[in-house]
């Protein structure tokens, strides 16, 4: 399939009192037209920074994209002017943020917030934009959309606010939807409804989705391919079926082993010891080595490359590349 978004060698840095910290370190990925790509990892792995880098929404005072290329529909967004990026952001590429309550403006009515994007990008008049906002609220399954359009964010439930965020993202029919933890803090029933909604909209509109999550259940349900991130790097990439049948990286195996199983005896869940390293104090070798149960001495000194171990299946692990595991 034709690639819609291609990220190559992306390095994003932050300037702090402790020095320059590289939060995203040389990642490359692509999203094809009509597919859903999942980015998975623990908090602090660089997933959200990757999405904000693509959208160019990071604070310029303390951050910068040091290297890399972000191509959308064949054009490098890093070479575009600020006006050109604004024309794409919210129009051709839209984003659902992690926490709707902090993303929605508390002093403006829901309808106004949705219609602003339609007025800016679609050049609609005030009345037409307001009608478009109500239409989008209806499309995302919100009952009484005319009434909801006149309410404020604090008057809605978490599930309703998330639907509003989707309506806001979809108002201009984007080619790419970036969803950053779209079901966080929602109960299981509402999670399922939100995922069904996103899948239905994708099929109807033909858009691509970049799904950022720590929930492997969401990945299994929504994604075609998946990228596993750890400490700012991609450590594994493959199609979703292969990931569950044959995970290669010890980190991926640890994530899958931590999932509760319905079948079999009730056993204590497996956990990965330790935590993601501070990006200002990364280990000299493999970044997962301090937590890896199968590491060898060289893992602590040699930085592995991301290599294709099998067709369409890449892994950043010395043990895999040398056939030890």
UniProtKB/TrEMBL annotation:
<keyword id="KW-0067">ATP-binding</keyword>
<dbReference type="InterPro" id="IPR003593">
    <property type="entry name" value="AAA+_ATPase"/>
</dbReference>
<dbReference type="InterPro" id="IPR050388">
    <property type="entry name" value="ABC_Ni/Peptide_Import"/>
</dbReference>
<comment type="similarity">
    <text>Belongs to the ABC transporter superfamily.</text>
</comment>
<keyword id="KW-0472">Membrane</keyword>
<dbReference type="InterPro" id="IPR013563">
    <property type="entry name" value="Oligopep_ABC_C"/>
</dbReference>
<dbReference type="Pfam" id="PF08352">
    <property type="entry name" value="oligo_HPY"/>
</dbReference>
<protein>
    <submittedName>
        <fullName>Peptide ABC transporter ATP-binding protein</fullName>
    </submittedName>
</protein>
<keyword id="KW-1003">Cell membrane</keyword>
<keyword id="KW-0813">Transport</keyword>
<keyword id="KW-0547">Nucleotide-binding</keyword>
<dbReference type="Pfam" id="PF00005">
    <property type="entry name" value="ABC_tran"/>
</dbReference>
<dbReference type="InterPro" id="IPR027417">
    <property type="entry name" value="P-loop_NTPase"/>
</dbReference>
<dbReference type="GO" id="GO:0015833">
    <property type="term" value="P:peptide transport"/>
</dbReference>
<dbReference type="GO" id="GO:0016887">
    <property type="term" value="F:ATP hydrolysis activity"/>
</dbReference>
<dbReference type="GO" id="GO:0005524">
    <property type="term" value="F:ATP binding"/>
</dbReference>
<dbReference type="InterPro" id="IPR017871">
    <property type="entry name" value="ABC_transporter-like_CS"/>
</dbReference>
<dbReference type="GO" id="GO:0005886">
    <property type="term" value="C:plasma membrane"/>
</dbReference>
<dbReference type="InterPro" id="IPR003439">
    <property type="entry name" value="ABC_transporter-like_ATP-bd"/>
</dbReference>
<feature type="domain" description="ABC transporter">
    <location>
        <begin position="5"/>
        <end position="256"/>
    </location>
</feature>
């Amino acid at each position: 399939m034709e690639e819609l978004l291609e990220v190559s060698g992306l390095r994003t840095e932050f300037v702090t009192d402790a020095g320059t910290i590289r939060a995203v370190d040389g990642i490359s990925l692509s999203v094809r037209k009509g597919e859903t790509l999942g980015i998975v990892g623990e908090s602090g792995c660089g997933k959200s920074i990757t999405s904000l880098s693509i959208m160019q929404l990071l604070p310029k005072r303390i951050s910068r994209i040091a290297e890399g290329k972000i191509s959308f529909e064949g054009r490098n967004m890093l070479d575009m002017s600020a006006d050109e990026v604004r024309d794409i952001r919210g129009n051709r590429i839209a984003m659902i943020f992690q926490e709707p309550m902090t993303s929605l403006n508390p002093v403006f009515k829901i309808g106004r917030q949705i219609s602003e994007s339609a007025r800016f990008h679609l050049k609609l008049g005030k009345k037409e934009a307001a009608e478009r906002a109500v239409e989008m609220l209806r499309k995302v399954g919100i009952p009484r959309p005319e009434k909801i359009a006149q309410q404020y964010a604090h008057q809605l439930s978490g599930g309703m606010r998330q639907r509003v965020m989707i309506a806001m993202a979809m108002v201009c029919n984007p080619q790419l939807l970036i969803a950053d933890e779209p079901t966080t803090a929602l109960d299981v029933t509402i999670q399922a409804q939100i995922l069904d909604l996103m899948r239905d909209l994708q099929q109807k509109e033909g858009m691509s989705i970049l799904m950022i999550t720590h929930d492997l259940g969401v990945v299994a349900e929504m994604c075609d391919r998946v990228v596993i991130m750890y400490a700012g790097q991609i450590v594994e990439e493959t199609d979703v079926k292969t990931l569950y049948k044959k995970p290669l990286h010890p980190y991926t195996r640890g994530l899958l082993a931590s999932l509760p199983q319905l079948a079999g005896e009730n056993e204590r869940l497996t956990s990965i010891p330790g935590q993601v390293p501070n990006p200002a104090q990364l280990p000299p070798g493999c970044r997962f080595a301090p937590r890896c149960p199968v590491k060898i001495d060289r893992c602590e000194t040699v930085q592995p490359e991301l290599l294709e171990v099998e067709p369409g299946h890449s892994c950043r692990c010395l043990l895999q590349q040398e056939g030890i595991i």
